């Protein structure tokens, strides 16, 4: 009886072994995993959700065409709420999920906080919106890429517009003390101080989330500055503009791509009219952009939000880069991204040695009749 049982057990094990050889085991090797990290809830969700939708559309299209390297692409979506402490946990979780690449994070602070974590596993992080210059120029890590121009380029655009187009003579600069807002404000301050056409009257930080900003607004009012340049996001910008206009201040308000979003217009209401903000150059007439926007309307029944095209371009570049490299290996994929051009809704782009996108830039927009219009 014992021998018969042993022979039966041996036969079962042989059959199982044969089955495992013939049928691949489910696991990470059977898919290309792309993490999508960003603010998907909270005040800044309007910046992160468009990236999730862009990733879904790109992946749906690529999977319909056979996937990448013959494998389907799988999305692993995680919400960091644009908070650095949450982003660290998100990065750790995505690595435990064995993602091959990450689309995100949306905000500069979370990118900074998590970049080193991804670097330990050789995972490339590509953001559609994080503009902090140190992310690519600090030399600390080489696994960060982006499909948006950095803050120094954005700040230069702002100061050139204020002094050249608006003919402003005096500028007050206010920021939210964060990696993104303060970093941008400091670049603007530097460009202004080097330019003899204008004078800096005030440089001050505010606390995000406060209800009342009358203290700093009164300082701006007393300075009699021609322009208030704000570095930060739409929740604080909307409060600043509302409180300024209620005090009958006609000071020109200009901000950044953290404010160039329909959510700012909705919150600020009538006070948003006339506000200027810098943002990625309008490429909505690009045939691929037209197709991507229409695809979003068809699938989701609405127009896409902020950074959708930048995210669509990032997802495209990451997945096409893997196909070109023939692997998700860090060195090979990095080389593929830096040595090839990708046709995207932003146009034909590539990446320089630092990971900054080649072929993208900033423009100035103004709220007219309830929507942002590019200033030509």
Provide a quick synopsis of the model.
The protein is of the alpha/beta class and 376 residues long. 46% of the residues lie in helices and 19% in strands.
Describe this structure in words.
The N terminus is likely disordered. Helix 3 packs parallel to helix 4 and helix 12 packs across helix 13. The radius of gyration is 24 Å and the shape is globular. The strands form three sheets. It has a seven-stranded mixed beta sheet with strand order 7-6-8-9-10-14-15, sandwiched between helices. Strands 2-1-3-4-5 form a five-stranded parallel beta sheet, sandwiched between helices. It is built from 13 helices and 15 strands. Helix 10 links the parallel strand 9 and strand 10. It has two domains: 197 residues, Response regulator (Rossmann fold, 3-Layer(aba) Sandwich), CATH 3.40.50; 105 residues, Rossmann fold. It starts with a helix and ends with a strand. By secondary structure, it is of the alpha/beta class.
Task: Provide the CATH architecture of the largest domain.
Answer: 3-Layer(aba) Sandwich
CATH top level of the largest domain?
Alpha Beta
Mean of pLDDT? 93
For CATH, the homologous superfamily of the largest domain is named as Response regulator
Categorize the overall geometry: globular
| Range of strand content | 15-25%
CATH topology of the largest domain: Rossmann fold
Q: What is the rounded distance between the termini?
A: 90 Å
* Unreliably modeled segments: 1-28
Q: What is the N-to-C succession of helices and strands? A: HEHEHEHEHEHEHEHEHEHEHHHEEEEE
Gyration radius over CA: 24 Å
Work out the helicity level.
40-55%
What structural category characterises the helix and strand content? Answer: alpha/beta
Question: Main sheet: which strands, in order across?
Answer: 7-6-8-9-10-14-15
Q: How many discrete domains? A: 2
Quaternary: single chain
What is the number of E strands?
15
> Largest beta sheet, briefly?
7 strands, mixed
Number of helices: 13
């Amino acid at each position: 009886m014992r021998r018969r049982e042993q022979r039966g057990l041996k036969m079962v094990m042989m059959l199982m072994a044969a089955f495992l050889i013939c049928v691949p085991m489910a696991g990470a090797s059977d898919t290309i995993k792309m993490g999508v990290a960003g603010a998907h809830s909270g005040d800044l969700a309007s910046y992160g959700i468009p990236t999730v939708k862009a990733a879904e559309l790109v992946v749906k299209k690529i999977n319909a065409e056979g996937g990448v390297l013959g494998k389907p692409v799988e999305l692993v979506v995680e919400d960091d709420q644009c908070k650095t402490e949450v982003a660290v946990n998100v990065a750790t979780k995505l690595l435990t999920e064995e993602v091959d690449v990450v689309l995100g994070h949306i905000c500069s602070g979370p990118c900074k906080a998590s970049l080193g974590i991804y670097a330990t596993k050789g995972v490339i992080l590509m953001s559609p919106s994080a503009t902090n210059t140190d992310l690519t120029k600090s030399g600390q890590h080489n696994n960060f890429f982006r499909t948006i121009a950095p803050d120094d380029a954005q700040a230069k655009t702002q100061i050139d517009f204020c002094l050249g187009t608006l003919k402003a003579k005096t500028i007050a600069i206010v920021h939210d003390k964060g990696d993104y807002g303060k970093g941008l404000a400091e670049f603007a301050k530097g460009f202004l101080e080097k330019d003899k056409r204008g004078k800096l009257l005030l440089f001050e930080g505010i606390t995000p989330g406060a209800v009342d900003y009358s203290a700093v607004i009164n300082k701006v009012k007393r300075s009699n500055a021609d322009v208030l340049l704000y570095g930060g996001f739409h929740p604080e910008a909307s409060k600043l503009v509302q409180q300024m206009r209620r005090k009958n201040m006609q000071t020109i308000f200009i901000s950044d791509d953290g404010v160039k979003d329909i959510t700012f217009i909705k919150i600020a209401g009538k006070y948003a009219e006339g506000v200027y903000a810098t943002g990625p150059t309008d490429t909505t007439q690009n045939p691929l952009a037209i197709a991507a926007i229409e695809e979003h309307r068809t699938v989701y029944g609405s127009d896409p939000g902020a950074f959708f095209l930048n995210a669509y371009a990032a997802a495209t570049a990451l997945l096409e880069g893997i196909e070109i490299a023939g692997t998700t290996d860090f060195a090979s994929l990095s080389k593929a991204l830096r040595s090839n051009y990708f046709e995207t809704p932003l146009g034909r782009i590539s990446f320089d040695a630092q990971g900054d996108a080649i072929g993208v830039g900033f423009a100035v927009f103004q709220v007219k009749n309830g929507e942002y219009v590019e200033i030509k």
